[in-house]
């Protein structure tokens, strides 16, 4: 018997796993993982082609100790036959005592196999469940070192170092049977327990990483069907029972499952609070963010959001894309997320947007509208979006949508949104334009005329001022300014604040101004506050250039209530010829309502660009 290694990652060291996925099976029947915290995972590895996968066990700040697990010795270990009794594990005979030799690594015996023998045909051996020798067990020590440096107000910089498996030690799994892959495909069945004992998690949750990788495998396959030569950048999957649904800087305080650029996918695992290792759509959603970032382009600014919120169009598209992708990858439009005591609570929604669910805020700024539109473009189900008479007769499948993501959406000169996506899709599929337009109308969006939403007339339902008051300040997706021309007035608002998720990333807090550069060279970009007249405004600027870089000017305010004329932000970048997008906003309007400097609300700026 040769021990197998329990995979770990230190730094950038990858691990190689089998090419074919885990499949959830119990007694020969496939089980749904929608709410399977009580189930175990049976992993079937088939094939001879290895796939490079990275997985990191994220237990930060404290060691984790796992007691040695008893190793069951079954007939398969002695190359025996089955009992012909489905659902029963055939055990071997023990002739003497379990003897642990302690050998570790290939070619070394961990325990003595000579004391086990094959019982007679159709006879159960004398060994019992968990009566074999104890495996080597494992422990792991992780650590974090971080320090915050105050900048001004609520702004700070944080230096942080996270170290996983500090001792860089190999973690050995229970020994398995020696076998050769030979020259043909080979199937090996392995069982990883979930740790659930009927009412709680009481033992090691070994099945969790395999359940997570099962979803990732499904996601990879749907992409490979559309792009067989796709090369996937390495991805770290950070799951731990210590990852808690609390936002903070303490060990495991990740807030919620999320994709973090240059870090990977972090997944909560806190029992009786929120565990996502069996929430397949949640995992696929976060992998959808990874896909968008790795193969396309994501201008998503992040932040808290709920399905009915009216948010920045970049957030709406990215979150809508990720949810729609989860349904595409898993072949299931019902998105489910479990949580709470005993993992017994859940919420769900239908990507098809069933007739019993009416979106209260449909439009280009709403992730539910975006995800429903994208899924309707993909699926082959003929349905009628609620509140409309429009039939969904379009079934493009994943390939055409992925082609847009890696081409038109990635290369757009606008910021990424449903406008840039649909504009590129219509350009690639002119014969489908009438059907595409019908579907956008069903989600309260005008037929898309360009990547800038020029034809749009829906500007949301404000939660503070009246629609008439807001519409006077906000009546275009993008404003336009001419180089060396007159100033254009744009207003940063907090009129779409959500009671549940705050104001920071909501609709119209950040405004967009486009302009074309004819002559390359230095250009002075200026935003001067003109309202409120007696307030202290802090205008900030971000310039999105044709080559995809973002130039920022986000200095502290230089004005007081007595010198409002000094509430100005200006910088002079070197610009190439072509279309540019300027992002303009009042800094406080991007803060949460509970921040030290909460949103001050309506703040208007005169914006100019001069050569």
Q: Could you characterize the architecture of this molecule?
A:
The protein is α+β, with helices and mostly antiparallel strands and 611 residues long. Among the domains are: 296-458, no CATH class; 464-611, Sandwich (Jelly Rolls). It is built from nine helices and 33 strands. A five-stranded mixed beta sheet has the order 23-25-32-28-29, with no helix packed on it. A hairpin with a 5-residue loop joins strand 28 and strand 29. The longest helix has 20 residues, at 207-226. It is elongated and about 95 Å long. The termini are far apart. The relative contact order is 0.09. The model is unreliable at 1-69 (pLDDT under 50).
Biggest sheet layout: 5 strands, mixed
Helix-strand category = alpha+beta
User: What separation lies between the terminal Cα atoms?
Assistant: 76 Å
- Count of separate DSSP helical elements: 9
- Rg, Å, rounded: 28 Å
Major beta sheet, strand line-up:
23-25-32-28-29
Helix % is 10-25%
Mean pLDDT: 82
Q: Spans of 5+ residues with little confidence (pLDDT < 50)?
A: 1-69
Shape: elongated
In short:
This protein has 611 residues and is an alpha+beta fold. The chain is built from nine helices and 33 strands.
